[in-house]
């Protein structure tokens, strides 16, 4: 019978302000999930060990935690798989990152729910309610299928690099839900949503670290949702209000005028005012040859590129 | 016989970080590769075009893939972001024949060659950090890094999402480590080596971005690194060109020279320093050269 050592993050604010680690040994069968292991430790060895869970079958999204540093749903992670990955070492169990622990593996989800609510995660149709249900085609639902799978487990927040640097960042799951409704043809708030999501700490704060896509246990790909919300901001004509949207615009202009990125455009277009005050840094960059010629470099067959830019229609 | 690749250096290596391009080109014969130019290739869009106009992003990247197909070779990149953008487009159209067909319609309408979906995109690091690549380096008889303590810095987009990249475990990457050791260096390990450098939002959200680069720079410093090496010119800009800004914003000093991956190879293989153009770096490379050999030499290092 396999035996596993679990090295668990402990935080018991009733008895101590300091977090500590505790090791537990467990004998078990070969098909034990991490959640079952934690619950057995709780039932058989230490009733004070706190964990949040509900469905035990990857639907409720309650039991996200970090196993050997990597955010997972405990109920869909096999202990034997973890040991295979870590070479038979003790399995380290920690609460999800970027949240404040309340007790052991339980974290304060309040900021997460507030951010979730802030994106208006519900359908807001235009006009009066129809007499019968609104019929949506399969193709139209397909567009928001990925985002519809989100179970709000916050695994994507746990290792979000933007969130680590800016705790106010609205974040991946909330924006996945944002796109789930902005992209729903029954919703009447596409433009308003684009404005709401483009504010400070909004979609343009995403640093594209791709941890959310990597970690999501349900295949939601939240970064892709944020990307599509950027596309909607462009379609709705509000993208250029934000430095992030202007940054993207500089690429579009570069492609049209030469085919390659014109780096000289990037700074003044993204930050037209701020860049005026950053002259010493600009001079330093120039002295190191890092401010290339403003005359766009033209790729061969640029006419193809121009035709493509003119012809391709967006379908978000 | 040298293996041929369609060479896609990306915009930053061609313009603001020319030292990366010149080093890679000079290194190619030593690595037994032949880098063929792609004069009609555009920018990959760097994730920005995908964000603004996703269909345009896809069409332009498939156009680049098709150019390599016409040349009869796979693409080699030297930038994380280009690698992800090209590979993502390649995966999308390879997995969805109807999507490929609609993209090809746009290409043909514009007079461009349609793509048949037969080519791959690789990064220089992936080419060199294999058994075959490492033994080829050995055959070159590397002069060696002389125990230089190098902090590997992967950044994000060469590792994640692994469904698109897939070369190695994104949580325990080892390719740079293997390379550093094979070249006679020591690895300075640290947790933030695969976290974000902040570059994509450096201009739009400077404060957030400089906190991100701080994590890697401060940890590499604390791990006793003589320098950092990165396979991505955007990470290089964030870590080198903006390092003084990160120091000011975070109230710390890092003094961390940052090497492009080909420069690390070049130093170990004895490539002419002029080609590697270290003068273009913001943070002085002197501490690195004093260990590896080159000037100026500092006395007293064990």
**How much is the radius of gyration of chain B in Å?**
19 Å
- Which spans of chain B of ≥5 residues are poorly predicted at pLDDT below 50? 296-302
Main sheet characteristics of chain A: 5 strands, mixed
Number of strands of chain A: 7
- Strand numbers in spatial order across the main sheet of chain B: 2-1-3-4
| CATH architecture annotation of the largest domain in chain B | 3-Layer(aba) Sandwich
CATH class of the largest domain in chain A: Mainly Alpha
Order of helices and strands of chain B: EHHEHHEHHEHHEHEHEHHEHHH
Please name the CATH architecture of the largest domain in chain A.
Orthogonal Bundle
Question: CATH topology of the largest domain in chain A, which one?
Answer: Fumarate Reductase Iron-sulfur Protein, Chain B, domain 2
Biggest interface: chains and residue counts? Answer: A-B, 70 and 63 residues
Shape call of chain A: globular
Helix content of chain A: 25-40%
Number of domains of chain A: 3
Number of helices of chain B: 15
Distance between the termini of chain B: 41 Å
* Percent strand of chain A: 5-15%
Could you walk me through the main structural features you see in this protein, from its secondary elements to its overall organization?
The complex is a heterodimer of chains A (316) and B (302). By secondary structure, chain A is an alpha+beta fold. Chain A folds into 3 domains: 3-107, Roll (Ubiquitin-like (UB roll)), CATH 3.10.20; 110-241, Alpha-helical ferredoxin (Fumarate Reductase Iron-sulfur Protein, Chain B, domain 2), CATH 1.10.1060.10; 243-311, no CATH class. Chain A is built from 15 helices and 7 strands. Chain A has helices spanning 34-44, 79-86, 110-118, 138-142, 145-148, 155-158, 161-165, 172-182, 190-197, 211-215, 222-235, 243-257, 263-270, 279-287, 302-311; strands at 3-10, 20-27, 64-67, 70-73, 91-94, 101-103, 106-107. In chain A, a hairpin with a 2-residue loop joins strand 6 (101-103) and strand 7. In chain A, helix 8 (172-182) crosses helix 11 (222-235). The radius of gyration of chain A is 24 Å and the shape is globular. Chain B is of the alpha/beta class and 302 residues long. Chain B has 2 domains: 3-124, Glutathione S-transferase Yfyf (Class Pi), Chain A, domain 2, CATH 1.20.1050; 125-292, 3-Layer(aba) Sandwich (Rossmann fold). Helix content of chain B is 47%, strand content 10%. Chain B has 15 helices and 8 strands. Chain B has a 4-stranded parallel β-sheet. A 4-stranded parallel β-sheet of chain B has the order 6-5-7-8, sandwiched between helices. In chain B, strand 5, helix 9 and strand 6 (186-187) form a beta-alpha-beta unit. In chain B, helix 4 (54-71) packs across helix 6 (97-109). The chains are: A alpha+beta (316), B alpha/beta (302). At the A-B interface, helix 7, helix 10, helix 11, helix 12 and helix 13 of A face helix 1, helix 3, helix 4, helix 6 and helix 10 of B.
């Amino acid at each position: 019978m396999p035996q596993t050592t679990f090295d668990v993050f402990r935080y018991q604010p009733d008895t101590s302000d300091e977090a500590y680690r505790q090791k537990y040994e467990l004998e078990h069968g070969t098909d034990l999930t991490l959640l079952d292991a934690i619950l057995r430790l709780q039932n058989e060895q230490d009733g004070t060990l706190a964990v949040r869970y509900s469905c035990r079958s990857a639907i409720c999204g309650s039991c996200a935690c970090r196993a050997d540093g990597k955010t997972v749903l405990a109920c869909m992670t096999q202990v034997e798989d973890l040991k295979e990955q870590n070479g038979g070492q003790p399995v380290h169990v920690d609460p999800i990152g970027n949240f404040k622990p309340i007790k052991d593996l339980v974290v304060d989800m309040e900021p997460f729910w507030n951010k979730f609510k802030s994106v208006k995660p519900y359908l807001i149709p235009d006009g009066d309610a129809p007499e019968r249900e609104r019929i949506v085609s399969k193709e139209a639902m397909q567009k928001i299928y990925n985002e519809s799978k989100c179970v709000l487990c916050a695994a994507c927040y746990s290792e979000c690099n933007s969130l680590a640097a800016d705790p106010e960042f609205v974040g991946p799951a909330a924006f996945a839900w944002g796109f789930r409704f902005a992209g729903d043809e029954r919703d009447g708030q596409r433009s308003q949503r684009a404005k709401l999501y483009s504010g400070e700490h909004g979609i343009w704060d995403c640093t594209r670290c791709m941890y959310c896509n990597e970690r999501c246990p349900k295949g939601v790909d939240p970064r892709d949702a944020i990307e599509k919300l950027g596309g909607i901001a462009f379609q709705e004509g509000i993208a250029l209000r934000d430095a992030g949207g202007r940054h993207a615009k500089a690429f579009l202009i570069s492609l049209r005028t030469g085919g390659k990125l014109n780096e000289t455009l990037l700074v003044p277009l993204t930050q037209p005012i701020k860049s005026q005050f950053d002259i010493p840094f600009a001079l330093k960059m120039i002295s190191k040859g890092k401010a290339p010629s403003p005359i766009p470099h033209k790729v061969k067959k640029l006419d193809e590129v121009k035709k493509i830019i003119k012809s391709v229609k967006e379908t978000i | 016989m040298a293996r041929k690749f369609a060479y896609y250096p990306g915009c930053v290596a061609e313009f603001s970080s020319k030292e990366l391009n010149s080093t890679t080109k000079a290194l190619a014969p030593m690595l037994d590769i032949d880098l063929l130019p792609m004069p009609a290739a555009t920018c990959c869009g760097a994730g920005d075009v995908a964000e603004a106009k996703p269909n345009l992003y896809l069409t332009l990247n498939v156009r680049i893939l098709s150019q390599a197909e016409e040349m009869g070779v796979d693409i080699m990149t030297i930038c994380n972001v280009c690698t992800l953008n090209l590979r993502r487009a390649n995966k999308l159209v390879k997995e969805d024949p109807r999507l490929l067909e609609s993209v090809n319609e746009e290409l043909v309408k514009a007079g461009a060659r349609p793509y048949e979906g037969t080519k791959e995109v690789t990064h220089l690091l992936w080419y060199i950090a294999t058994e075959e690549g490492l033994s080829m380096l050995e055959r070159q008889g590397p002069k060696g890094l002389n125990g230089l303590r190098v902090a590997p810095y992967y950044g994000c987009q060469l590792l994640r999402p692994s469904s698109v990249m897939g070369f190695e475990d994104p949580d325990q990457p080892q390719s740079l480590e293997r390379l550093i050791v094979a070249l006679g260096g020591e690895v300075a390990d640290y947790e933030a080596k695969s976290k974000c450098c902040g570059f994509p939002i450096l201009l739009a959200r400077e404060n957030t971005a400089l906190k991100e680069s701080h994590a890697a720079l401060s940890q590499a410093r604390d791990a006793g690194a003589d320098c950092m090496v990165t396979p991505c010119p955007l990470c290089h800009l964030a870590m080198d060109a903006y390092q003084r800004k990160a120091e000011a914003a975070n109230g710390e000093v890092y003094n961390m020279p940052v090497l492009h991956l080909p420069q690390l190879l070049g130093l170990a293989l004895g490539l002419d320093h002029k080609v590697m153009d270290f003068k273009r770096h913001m943070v002085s490379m002197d501490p690195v050269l004093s260990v590896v050999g080159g000037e100026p030499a500092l006395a007293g290092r064990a």
